Amino acid sequence: MDTSAPDRRRGQILLAAAGGVLATVVGMAVGHLVAALVDPAASPVLAVGSTVIDLTPTPVKEWAVAQFGTADKPILIGSVLVVTLLLAAVAGVLARRRFAVGLVLLLVLVGVAGLLALLRPTAGPLDVVPALATALAGGGALWWFHRASVGAPAPADGTTGIDPDGDPDARRTTGPTRRGVLIASGVLAGTAVVAGSVGQWISTVRTRIGNIVLPKPAEAAPALPDGLDIPDLSPFRTPNDEFYRVDINLTVPVVDHESWTLTVDGDVENELTITWDELLDMDMVERDITMTCVSNDVGGQYVGAARWLGVPLKTILDRAGVGDRADQILSTAVDGFTISTPLDVATDGRDALVVVGMNGEPLPREHGFPVRLVIPGIYGYVGSTKWLTKLTLTTYDDDVAYWTERDWATDAPVKIASRIDVPKAATTVDPGTVVIAGVAWAQTRGIAKVEVQIDGGAWEEATLGPDAGVDYWRQWYYEWDASDSGNHAFTVRATDETGEVQTDVRMSPFPEGSSGYHTRAVMVS
Ligand SMILES: Nc1nc2c(c(=O)[nH]1)N[C@H]1C(S)=C(S)[C@@H](COP(=O)(O)O)O[C@H]1N2
Ligand SMILES: [Mo]
C-alpha cells in the first residue's frame, strides 16, 4: 500500500489522539467501578459534573433548565465528558512525541476529577481510592497504547528507523505492528466497557432500598377520590417514578437508614438526636399534599401531588423546646444542601411534616430517603429538604441557606397557578367538542374556580375534578365547541378559596416563582 508521508503522519496523529481518548475512558471506567465498591458518589466523572453544577451561576442554570428541562443534568454530564475527551485526545497526541508530557496532562485531568471528588461535602478519606485507580488505569492504558502504536525506543545498535523523513518515530526500532495496535485497542476498549458496566451494575444493586415496613398512620387520610380520567391529563396522584425531581446532585445521595439520625439543635431547650427506629415509633399522619418547585415556569412540569406519611414537624420541635429567639428553621441535608424555613409554618397549623413515606412506599432515594421535609404552601427550596439530617433553630439574621445565598427570595409562598395539559401544544384537533383539561393549585388556600378563555373571549367556568383538600391540586376540564376551523388559542386562570384570582402579570421563576397565565394554541381542521 502506498501512502504519502503527510497522510501517514495525519493517520498517526489521529491514532495517537484516539489512544489518549481510549486511555482516559479506561481510567474513568475503572474509577467508576472502584467508586461503586467504595462510594458510588465518589466516581470522578460525577464529581466533576457536580462541581460544575455548584459553580454555574444562577442565570446560566436557569437557562439550562429552560432549554433542557429535567434533561439539564445529563446534558451537563455530556458537556463535561466532551471537554474531558478533547483534552484526552490532546494528551494522546502530546504523548506520541514526548510520552511524559502527554502522561502529565492525562494525570492532571484525572487529578482534578479526583480532587473534586474529595472536596464534596459528603466525601470521606476512602474517596481518594477511586481517583487513584483512575490515574493508574488511565496512565497504564496510555503507556500500553503508546508502546503498541509508536514502538519501544531504539536499541543501542541503531538499526533502521521506520520513518525516514525526520519523524520522531524514526528513532524507534521495535516498530509498531498493526496487530499490536489492534490488540491493545481491543483489550483497552473491552476493559472500559466491562469496568464501566460492572461498576454501574454494582452501584445500582448497592443502592436498592431493601424491605422496609412503614408504620400504619395514627391519623390516616381519607381514601383519595378517583380523579378525572382524561387521556394526557395529569393523574390525580402522581406516581413516584413520575414525580418531578429537583436537587443539586448529579448522583442521588445514598443514605443508610439504620445509621441515619436527625439532630435538632440551636435555640432549643434540649438538643435532640432521633434515630430511624425512634422516628418510626412516633405517631404518624398521612396527608395529600402537592409540591411545587420555584423554578417551575408557567405551564411547567415541576409540580407533583402525592400522599405523604410522616411525623408533624411541630411534634419534634416541641420535644426539643424551641427558644424565643428563633425565627428560622435551618435544615441541613446529607448533600450539604441547606434550606431556611420560617418557624411560623411549623406552628401555624398547616401540615408541615417530617416524612418517611410517599404514596404508600418508603421515600425513593431520588425523593430523599430515608427522611425529608414536606411543607404545603411554600416552594420546595424553602421547605422540602430531602435526605434531612439536622434542624437548627436560628434566626434569619444569623444564617442564610443554599438558594437564598444565591439570591432567590427568602420567603416564598406558592403562587396560585393553573396549567393546561390537554390538548397537547401545537396539535390539530377535529372540529366538534374538544376537551380542554389540566390542573390548578394554590396550596394552603385551595382552588375554588378555574376559568378558560377562548380566543380572547369571555372567561368560561371549567368543571373541577374531585377535592382532596386545600393543599392538593384540582384537576379541571372544559368542553369547547370548536366549530370554526383555523388557529385558536385558549388561556386558563384559577381563583383560590379566599377569592384571590391568579395574576396575569408575567414573571420568570427567579427570584420568587413564576406568574402569568398559561396559554395554548391548536389548529382545528
Ligand atoms: N437535600 C436537598 N433537598 C432538596 C433540594 C436539594 O437540592 N437538596 N432541592 C429542593 C428543591 S429546589 C425542590 S423543588 C424539592 C424537590 O423535591 P423532589 O425532587 O422530591 O420533587 O426538593 C428540595 N429539597
Ligand atoms: Mo425547587
From TrEMBL:
The keyword Lipid metabolism does not apply. GO terms for biological process: sulfur compound metabolic process. Residues 155-176 are annotated as: Disordered. The chain crosses the membrane at residues 12-38, 75-94, 99-119, 125-145, 181-202. One of its GO terms (molecular function) is sulfite oxidase activity. It comes from Nocardioides zeae. This is Molybdopterin-dependent oxidoreductase. Pfam families: Big_7, Oxidored_molyb. The keyword Membrane applies. Gene3D superfamilies: 2.60.40.650, Oxidoreductase, molybdopterin-binding domain. Residues 250-399 form the Oxidoreductase molybdopterin-binding domain. Keywords: Membrane, Transmembrane, Transmembrane helix. InterPro entries: Ig_E-set (IPR014756), OxRdtase_Mopterin-bd_dom (IPR000572), OxRdtase_Mopterin-bd_sf (IPR036374).
